[in-house]
């Protein structure tokens, strides 16, 4: 499967599940490799890093990667969740914050050099978002997508992903359908690991959209399966930690001149 297929109504329901508990989300979700940002911004050669927008910025995990390369006042973080943006304000003071949706960005036309969606493409309506990317980017600017997912090529990680409903929803063939006006979509992959203790693994499971929409019975079953996985399958020391391998997919396309 190259990309998730989520009906529009279901996409809105699942996305709304992230509208609260921003602190819990921020504590356990991984960031993104610095090498991925270097690759995404390579077409700009460091000469036109004037302004960027992080679309679906959430609590700022991806925004932090932009701040290593842009002045804080030139980065705008956009997200529909007020609670997520409140966490971002606390974590990354100085960043411009704007409530909004990817399909109707509160950003002037032709005003940014980078428009980033990290862990957000499957929550947006692709056609409307693509038009907005074309509108807000300057000629030569970069539309960028980052996707973190567990490396389910490893058997134990695949089993964990099934337990917490974090399946392998993208593969190397995925390319976003962008409108005319963009050059070819380039792809790169970067690997990294995240270390979590036992409580952190449970918190990661509770940060998934499935948990947030599940009822008491579904949540109890997930936690029972997760305890089995950690205690009996992995025999994880109660005071130990788990190193989770991730794949980070990076995709970029350059906006062509009008």
TrEMBL record:
Does the entry feature the keyword Transferase, yes or no? yes
Q: Note whether Coiled coil occurs among the keywords.
A: no
Protein name (record): Ubiquinone biosynthesis protein
One Pfam match = Methyltransf_11
Record family assignment: Belongs to the methyltransferase superfamily.
A GO term, aspect molecular function:
S-adenosylmethionine-dependent methyltransferase activity
Record-linked SUPFAM superfamilies: S-adenosyl-L-methionine-dependent methyltransferases
Q: Which organism is it from?
A: Sediminivirga luteola
Tell me the domain of life: Bacteria
In this protein, which residues make up the domain named Methyltransferase type? 53-145
**Taxonomic lineage of this organism?**
Bacteria, Bacillati, Actinomycetota, Actinomycetes, Micrococcales
The Gene Ontology biological process annotation of the record reads:
methylation
Record's keyword terms, sorted: Methyltransferase, Transferase, Ubiquinone
Stretches of the chain forming a coiled coil according to its record:
none
């Amino acid at each position: 499967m190259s990309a998730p297929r989520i009906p529009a109504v279901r996409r809105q329901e699942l996305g709304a599940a992230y509208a609260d508990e921003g602190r819990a989300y921020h504590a356990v979700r991984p960031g993104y490799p610095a090498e991925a940002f270097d690759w995404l911004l390579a077409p700009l050669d460091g000469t036109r890093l004037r302004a960027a927008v992080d679309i679906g910025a959430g609590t700022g995990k991806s925004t932090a990667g932009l701040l290593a390369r842009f002045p804080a006042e030139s980065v705008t973080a956009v997200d529909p969740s007020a609670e997520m943006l409140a966490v971002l304000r606390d974590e990354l003071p100085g960043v411009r914050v704007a409530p909004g949706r990817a399909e109707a960005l509160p950003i002037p036309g032709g005003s940014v050099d980078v428009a980033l969606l990290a862990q957000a493409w499957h929550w947006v309506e692709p056609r409307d978002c693509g038009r907005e990317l074309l509108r807000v980017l300057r000629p030569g600017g970069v539309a960028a997508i980052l996707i973190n997912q567990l490396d389910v090529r490893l058997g134990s990680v695949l089993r964990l992903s099934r337990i917490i409903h974090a399946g392998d929803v993208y593969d190397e063939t995925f390319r976003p359908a962008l409108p005319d006006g963009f050059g070819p979509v380039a792809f790169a992959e970067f690997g990294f690991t995240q270390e979590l203790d036992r409580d952190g693994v449970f918190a990661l499971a509770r940060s998934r959209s499935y948990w947030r929409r599940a009822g008491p019975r579904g949540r109890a079953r997930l936690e029972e399966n997760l305890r089995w996985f950690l205690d009996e399958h992995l025999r994880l020391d109660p005071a130990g930690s788990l190193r989770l391998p991730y794949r980070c997919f990076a995709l970029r396309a350059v906006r062509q001149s009008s």
